[in-house]
Queue: 4 jobs
Job 1
Amino acid sequence: MTWLITGAAGYIGARVLEAFTMAGIPAVALDSLVGGDRDFVPVAAPFIHASTLHCGKVTQSQEDHRVSGVVHLAGYKYAGKSVKERLVAYEYNGTGAALLLKAMDRAGLRRIVFVGRRLRNAGRVNLHRGHPHSSRIAIRRN
Ligand SMILES: NC(=O)c1ccc[n+]([C@@H]2O[C@H](COP(=O)([O-])OP(=O)(O)OC[C@H]3O[C@@H](n4cnc5c(N)ncnc54)[C@H](O)[C@@H]3O)[C@@H](O)[C@H]2O)c1
């Protein structure tokens, strides 16, 4: 099973990709390089220079690499910039995520791991096992 890791040239994505590589789990990196750094991506991993906004390119890479799940870590979250350029941030994050889901749907992919931020003013929620908002991340090889 091959995973597509979006935002793989970023702080978290690069580490997730490295962990997958070390665990022997096949993974493909995708990043627009709007942030991050291409050098963070392990040399051995296939790298796709694309934005999640490029639905066609995402679909193509899913087919080329027989991807069966996505770890979505692409995010435009730069302090100051993302506040000043709210529409740009919305496009990269909101529209980008929607188009990624569209590309996954087209390819019949149902597995996604998403790391988001707690919403401002969302209050404090104690998540316990069984809580409707709790989530479990399970990465299986098969
Ligand atoms: N760093 C943290 O402490 C932390 C904590 C909680 C949640 N998160 C979330 O995890 C995600 C990744 O955070 P990070 O710290 O690794 O950020 P980062 O800025 O280091 O990496 C994000 C990567 O996403 C890429 N990117 C942005 N928009 C893209 C798009 N539309 N298509 C393709 N690539 C795109 C950037 O080029 C960059 O390489 C974000 O959603 C962030 O909100 C981060």
Job 2
Amino acid sequence: MSMHFWDASWDLNLDLCPCDLHFMEWIKAEKIRGKVIYHFGTGSHHLVGVENLKMGEPNYFIGVTASPGETEAFTRMAIEEPRLSRNYTMHFGDIYLFNGKLLPKFDIATMFHLGEFWSEKTASYGGATDEEVLRRVIRQMKKNGRIVFYEGSDGWSRTKPIVAKLAKEGLLTKTDKHQKLTIYTVSR
Ligand SMILES: C[S@@+](CC[C@H](N)C(=O)[O-])C[C@H]1O[C@@H](n2cnc3c(N)ncnc32)[C@H](O)[C@@H]1O
């Protein structure tokens, strides 16, 4: 049995998927600083790390990718620009195996691609469901932490009812919007 990894590498395509850029616009507009941010789905461009560096490194990012190509791209970029990995790092792994014991508590998490990648193969090695991943990420949030979703995602039709269910349970409250990003604050 092998991992359901992402056998592709996603280059920046702002027409199809502007979520990372819009997220960094929101960070800038809201003057967010000093926050630990978990980013699901880095792309080979690692835009959030590059923009964080350009902005003077106000925040601390940990990305996750299931793509060997995107992992290799990060290695190359970090060698060419060593300052990139000071406040931006990433790990290769499957979000469906999310384990909070391996990571710090987050102030902000992006769940832009929730609902896009679960498969029967994921389940075959004990991978969680999309709902369980979101519950684990919620448990990983600091007080008043914020989780950001992307309504333009292919997975949004699957994610939307999960978010509504967890909001009904009182775990999440919608508190902000930027472009097609919706921002929920964790209530606990
Ligand atoms: C369509 S790309 C989008 C990348 C970037 N956010 C953007 O908008 O340009 C989807 C991302 O999800 C990541 N991904 C796919 N399956 C994953 C999984 N099971 N666990 C973690 N990341 C995964 C891919 O590696 C890729 O970085």
Job 3
Amino acid sequence: MDGLIVHDVRNANGSIHFRVVGSLLRSHLPNLHPGIHQTVVDTFASELMSGGKTFNEWTSVRIFPMVKNLIRTTNSLVFFGKDLTNDAEYLKALLQYPEDVVSTSEVLRFTPTFLAPVVASIMMRRGRAVKHLVKSLLPVVEQRMKRNSQDSEQMDIFQWMIGSSPKKSPWLATKIVQVTLGLWFGSIHQPAMAIVYALYDLCQHPQYIEALREEMTRCEENKTGDPFEEMVLLDSFLKESARFSPSDSRELPKLRLAKLPFENPSIDTVSVSLRRKAIAPYTFTDGLSVKFGDVACVPMRAMMRDESKYPNARTFDGYRFVTDSQRDSVAKLTDVETKFPIWGYGRRAW
Ligand code: HEM
């Protein structure tokens, strides 16, 4: 990857990104919230104004590109700070790079090994996007590394990567860029899918709009504690949306908001998740065995539509996970649990 080396062995890539995302990012979210909020507001406004067809007071937008732009701008702020947000080529590369990697990896699965380097190079457009990202990001890291790495004014993933780099043998700037771009790759697609489905659900069930607005306004005004902790309906709605359309679904429909109302398009797509390729023959405790090279998956959609766990499982119920009296016993959207594996399983889940 443009001179950057990604090791197949997991630990060889280091583990500071686990600390950065799992701990530092989480603890700084309240401070980042105002910037994220403003970015979301601005991006929505500019996307809605940018050339979609208008009918009376409605504007048609292509929802997936719009949401990807939204995720890109907010994630870019959280990952790299404000410095680069005016560079159009860099912003384009931020989306192009993960898309190139995904399409290339799919094509490589069916490519003979001897042709792989040539095909990969063509599919990755000779690394144009990643080269541009490295060219833009490397000087930023190098400059920041020269300053105090614990620079408290800077609050973004880049800075925490620099600050968390081992003191005895600090990471080179190239490695910081490499690992951060790896994280970046993981940070685009899933959130974008989750938001698209939540927007579809909101459009299909507009009765939640007012209730959600009311809850958000009330919780934002109540300045005691973290407002998000109090937004039980929002949490439940998003969790139900994730249950109804686990975002690992196979395809995203080409629908436009203007065509509303419509059936929830995700209903018949297939979803498996958490793929694991066996690197040695293995027998599970129930006797099921897999051979070398087999891929084991979690049947996410089937689990999420299991009537014994979710009564009326094929009906969207935004209040499904709101139970006021025993709120503490109901897992939140962001909790990692085996029954609801949208974040993955066990200690490897984020
Ligand atoms: C709605 C949002 C998201 C969903 C539903 C989601 C879901 C998942 C799932 C199912 C996995 C596979 C876990 C496994 O195989 O056990 C995964 C892995 C991963 N995700 Fe996410 N993710 C989301 C957002 C993010 C974000 C924002 C980031 C980065 C800031 C991120 C970074 C990663 C990374 C680095 C991995 C690989 C972890 C590993 O190899 O152990 N994800 N995610």
Job 4
Amino acid sequence: MELLADDIVPEYAREVKHEAREFAEEYIAPNAEERFREAEYPHDILEAGQDAGLVAQDIGEELGGRGLDVVQMLAVAEEWFRADAGIALSLQLASFGAEIVEKYGTDEQKEEFLRPVAEGDQITGLAVSEPDTGSDLSGMQTTAERDDETDEWVLNGEKYWIGNGVEGDWLTVYARTGDDEDNRYGNHSLFVVPTDAEGYEAEHIPEKMGMRASKQAHIVFDDCRIPAENLVGSEGAGFMLLAEFFNHGRVVVAGHGLGLAAAAFEEAWEFVHGREEFGRTIADFQAVQHGLADMRTEFESSRALTYRAAEKVRDGDNPGLWAAMAKTKATETATDCAEQGMQFHGGRSILTDRRIARVYRDVRIPVVYEGANEIQRNLVYRQS
Ligand SMILES: Cc1cc2nc3c(=O)[nH]c(=O)nc-3n(C[C@H](O)[C@H](O)[C@H](O)COP(=O)(O)OP(=O)(O)OC[C@H]3O[C@@H](n4cnc5c(N)ncnc54)[C@H](O)[C@@H]3O)c2cc1C
């Protein structure tokens, strides 16, 4: 049974999907259990992904990347997340937020910051969430103030949960540059912040129960100074640029859900066909067969919706609505499939070295990041 079948994937995205599968089979799946246990950043696998031309390749060809579009990034995501979500997240976050700089940055910013990421010499990340604010993008408190004497921006505040906050070379940082209560969506701006800037401090957040082969940071900006030209786009446009970016990114997060749901289904299928009780395999019980049938049906519906959404996002056809529907459906299918897969594993479900136990913990995360699913439902309602 081929769950991540090619037929639904537009033809032009199949080649990179096959490359991603080959890479996953060689580098991700065989290391998944060990890397989950160790909870270390997978530097060597990231490097292999850069050498294979699969990391940060959403960046355009003129800047050294392959210019993979959202459908192609989705095809890569489902393959990698099926193999292991923690390692996959580390690989996919290497260019998180770079798209905003590519679309709205100056030529100088693109050459200085994007080219090294596309060429595999640097990695980046996107710093939005804060210790006291997550879902409310217009409520973020980190500030950036202009110092006209030195022609710099001065950042103060904290960020939390930031992928590559420790490992990255620079980040796209979302900070408050205004305080207009009548215009909550015009108070923030985006900046390129090198992680070696004075006043930038980052440490890893405490151990996580899921996606352990990915690392996130707690960042403190203490009078962190960056050149005036590191503003991305125009002052006050940060909220709008970010909202547009997430419309895009969320359909790839749906791919995280698809990969995880496929992993849960495969594990459940294999287990119930091998485990015997009452003198037969448990797959002979109709209740078990129905459980698997429901998992498969939900998986296929989610995948159909997600690929449809990806094409809508690519074509700019009501992207926010489609990305939010796909993200909600696919990530919740992953939690449902993991829950059923655990039940079918009986007591063995809680053995920590089991793939199903890993998947069960990993599925908790895509229902939250890039906007909790409640926020997605708000978007679906409003945009319907
Ligand atoms: C592994 C991981 C990696 C991450 N990587 C990054 C990263 O690289 N960069 C970054 O900036 N952030 C990152 N995040 C942060 C992530 O985007 C936030 O966790 C997410 O936006 C939710 O914010 P919060 O955790 O503060 O939850 P809160 O905003 O405090 O929300 C908690 C819960 O309250 C409910 N809720 C909140 N608002 C509403 C509402 N309006 N309506 C109904 N219910 C609501 C939901 O159930 C929600 O789950 C990451 C998070 C994780 C777990």
